[in-house]
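Hey L., structure's done. Input below.
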Amino acid sequence: MEYWLPVIWFGVIGFGVLMYVLLDGFVLGLGILAPFSEDEAQLDYMMNTAAPIWDGNETWLVLGGAGLLAAFPKAYALILSSLYLPVLLMLVALVFRGVAFEFRFKAQRSKFLWGWAFALGSLCAAFWQGVILGAVVEGMPTQAGKYIGSGLFGNAFAFFSPFSMLTGAAVVFGYALLGACWLILKTEGPLQHTARTLARPLVLVVVVFMGLVSASLPFLSSKIMARWFEDGHFWWLSPVPLLVLANAFALWRAVMQQDRDAKPFLLTMCFFVLGFAGLVLGIWPYIVPPTLTIWQAASPPSSQGFVLVGLVVLLPVILGYTYWSYRVFAGKVEADSGYH
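Output:
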């Protein structure tokens, strides 16, 4: 069990992060697309599509963070202490987004300002999530237990690099695509037409960003793509990039088809799943490349086993609640529906 417990927890944390990205990603995408709404009524319509379920999505972020602390405390300490600024900015943006979401529906004279606050909070949260991802993927080398980084402005800003800025922008456009496809799924009429119009160029932009990020990986100090080209690994890993290309083609066709409302959203989620799979295959067995493997960062087996017992109870509850809430609020949202 000393070998398998870290593997199990790595899978649990990865699943939690992926679920957060898929479920809260489209809500952040709605905020990113908010400036494209024609008027306040259309923005109401956009936000109402996510109003009943948006706050429950952040449960997965809490699960991922708590699991990282419990199962891999060394990785938690290194990541949080080294990336405290982008993590803090991300959390502030998420709080700002949440406050704006609630206050905007109650405001009268300041409704316009809260709409922009919702957009700004969503944009910043998405960008800083991408920066954090980029910094971890780029590699977090340590000296005397401290992150030395490769940033342009010293250790305090060691996360700042061209690659982390690239991943930050990539996540923003990825969430925007997810938000546009969510609107295709949940709305009708002019708003759905606007969403389709926005989704078409976003598909191309996301594909370009995925290509740029992938092309940058072999040149990172963490050598994140090394395993793809060692010992003939490329041949059994090649289905992932091939599936990405096939998914991109299918998504472009689905967005162009006027009678396909659910397919674009499902294919966009597949985009994220395939990208996440490629990332995990690249960094394995590191949880903080190139410093800590999952076994080096793991807490004692007794601690991991103890927390795993609680997870066995908690995870089905979270999955059940998520399934139930999305099932209850399934289907199209009416343009005149309200949120109070």
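The chain has 13 helices and four strands. The CA atoms of residues 48 and 339 lie 7 Å apart.

-- N.
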